Amino acid sequence: MSSTRGFRGRSGPADPRLPPGQYDTGDDWPVLSAEVTPSLDTATWTFRVEGHVEQERTWTWDELRALPVDTYQGPIHCVTTWSKFAMTWRGISVDTLLAAARPRPGATHVLAFSHTGYTTNLPLADVTDGLAWVAWEVDGGPLPTEHGGPARLLVPHLYFWKSAKWIAGLRVLDHDEPGFWEERGYHDRGDPWLEQRYQGD
Asked: Which domains does the chain have, with CATH numbers?
């Protein structure tokens, strides 16, 4: 097993579903946040796509939930070495939201930003073609506040710090711009299967 430089998982038989250095958390879903959990009112909640686009767009809670809903079924992987399997998420594909704003030629990245001020950067290729969602439901119920409710970004093929809690929008960019954890030494991309935990991995 590869070193995770300070993170400790659980020993046991190798599971081919697990990326290197990860363990199956089972029924548990650890709560990890960089900020104090906010109290957000869906009556005033909004989601925005801005930046390097033809038309900046803003949706209210009701407007967003009126869009065609997609489902993701599968695992999530946290950089702190736990993975959780067999989850079912529902929300809006990021493809749908970006299509409404129409990224301009030369767009390469997005900076996801939260209602709390948290940010994380992602290549445009990692949030398009059915790879990312704005999700408000998990395993048949509303997304709990401590896990990012009322809605969070969901990018399950990357470490979960990229799935920004309490999502407020996406800023489309023609360049890369590091977010909160990336400025503090975390990897720019965060692929669990490549163990991209820190800069230089």
From this structure: 46-194 (3.90.420.10)
Name the pTM for this structure: 0.92
Report the distance separating Cα 120 and Cα 131, nearest Å.
16
**DSSP string of 43-81, one letter each residue:** TT-EEEEEESBSS-EEEEHHHHHTSPPEEEEEEEE-TTS
**71: its two tokens:** 């489902």
Whether residue 113 contacts residue 47, with contact meaning beta carbons closer than 8 Å, is answered with no
Are 78 and 196 in contact, with CB atoms under 8 Å apart? no
Model pLDDT for residues 142-192, shown as the tens digit of each residue: 999 999 999 999 999 999 999 999 999 999 999 999 999 999 999 999 999
Task: Tell how strand 23-24 and strand 82-93 pair up.
Answer: parallel
